[in-house]
Amino acid sequence: MNYVFANPDKVMVGVRGEVGSRLFLLQAREGRRLVIVKCEKQQLAALAEWLAQVITEMGRPGHLPDDLSLEAEYETDFVAGDIAVSLDEEAHTIEVTFESLEVRTNWC
């Protein structure tokens, strides 16, 4: 399953649960579509560090949503495995690709 957000309205990161059993989530919303990815704390920290560096170099986007907190829904669509990031400096766009940890098996 591929989820593509060409122009997301919001991308939020947060946690649910108590210390020791926390659930780290990334939520992306574009219009009525919401995708929720379960991540490891270290994955989100590394992504945030990279994005902060890029935003420092490229400049902050013109408009940010007022509310960047997680939405109430938190049933995950998938669990993040590898995360790849790329930058198109001319178009001022950032692409983040999450691969699912789930291995699909096709039975013949």
List strands and helices in order, with pairings.
Blueprint: E1 10-16, E2 23-30, E3 33-39, H1 41-58, E4 78-88, E5 93-100
Parallel strand pairs: 3-4
Antiparallel strand pairs: 1-2, 2-3, 4-5
Class based on secondary structure composition and strand pairing: alpha+beta
Number of strands: 5
Query: How many whole angstroms does the radius of gyration measure?
Result: 15 Å
Query: How would you classify the quaternary structure?
Result: single chain
Cα-to-Cα separation, first versus last residue: 20 Å
Contiguous low-pLDDT stretches (5 residues minimum) are none
Net shape: globular
Largest sheet: 5 strands, mixed
Percent strand equals: 35-45%
SSE succession: EEEHEE
**Range of helix content:** 10-25%
Mean of the pLDDT scores?
88
The total count of helices amounts to: 1
Strand order of the largest sheet: 1-2-3-4-5
